[in-house]
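Appendix C. Worked example: DNA polymerase III subunit delta
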Amino acid sequence: GHDIIKKRLIRTVKDNRISHAQLFTGPEGSGSLALAIAFAQYVSCLDPEESDSCGTCVSCQKYMKLIHPDLHFVYPVATTKTITKDPVSDDFINDWRSFILDNPYQGQEQWYEYIGVGNKQGIISKNESYKIIRKLSLKAFESEYKVMIIWLPEKMNQVAANKLLKIIEEPPPKTLFLLVSEDPGKILPTILSRTIINKIPKIDKNSLFNTLKGRFLISNDELKKTVQLADGNYLQAVDLLSEEENNLDNFRMFTQIMRLCYAGKIIEIIKWVDEVSIKGREKQKSLLAYALRMIRENFMLNLAKGQNEKIIQLSGEEAEFSKKFYPFIHENNVYEIAEEFNSAHFNIVSNANSKIVFLDLTLKIIKLIKT
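Step 2, the predicted output written as C-alpha cells:
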C-alpha cells in the first residue's frame, strides 16, 4: 500500500530534493517504520529502479539485514536484568535487528516485551544524544548518505531533545534524519518544527488482503473478515490470524490426546508428549488454557443434555467433536480433570520440565476419562 507516498518520496530522490529531516507518522500497524527503512534503502541503493530499490546490490543486501554501516537506529530502551545502568540503543542492536526483521510492523509494547524490560517504559535519554552526535560526525563509510532512523521520538526526554536540536537543524552534509512516530503530538515542538511531515494512512484493504494471503493459509472469506476487523492495522491482522492458527493447532492437539488417552495407547501418547514438549512455553500454556475451556464447555454440554445449548461456545469443528466427547466429561470427573490441567499449567509457568509435566498429565487423564 501507500503507493502515492512512495512515488512522492522517490521523486524527491530523483530530483535531488531530499529533505534532511523527515517525520513518518501513522497509527500503529500502518507501516511507518517499514516505509522509512525502505526509503533509506532506496536513497542508498547503487542501482535504483523506477519504483523501488534494486534489492540486489551490495548496499541493498546490507540494508535488508539492517547491517549497513551508514544506517543507524535509535529507539526507546530501559534497564533489564543484563543492562542495569544507562541503557542506550546500541546495547540492544542485535535484539532490534531480529525484532524488525521478524516483523517491522510491531509496536512498542511488543518491543518492550521482546527485550524483557518488565513493566518499565522505554525512553530515549541524553546518553543517546551523545551517541547520535558522535556517529554523525564521522564520514559515511560506504553510501552517499548517513541515515539516522529514530523510532518513537516522542519517547525522547527534553534534555536529549535539546541536545539534538542543532544537529537536526544543521546536520553534517549528506545526513538524513528519519523520525518515525505514532504520536507526534508528544514530540517536543522545537524538534517537530524542524521536520517535513509524511502522514502515513492506514493500509488499504486490498493491499492488506493481498499481503496476508501470501503469508497465511486461510480461506478468502476468513481473510476478508480479518481484514475488516483489523481496519488497516497489519499488526492486529497478524495477531488475529496467528490466534486462529494457534486455535486450530490447539484443537488438533487436544482432540488427539483425548482420543489416545481413552484408547490407552501409551506409545502414541509418548509421541504426542514429545511433540508438545518441543513447543515454546507460551504455546504449551495456550494449549492447556484451551484444554480447560474445552473441558468446561463439554461439561456444560453434558449438563444441558441438548435442552439449552445456546450457552455453549464452540466452533463448528469443536461442536462436531464434542457431540461424541461430552458424555465423558461429567460431575464425577470434571473437577479432577480440570485440577490436573490447572496443575500442569502452573508447573509450565514455573519452568518445570515440560516432558515430565505432560506425561504425568496424560497418564492421569487415562484414568479420569474412563471414570
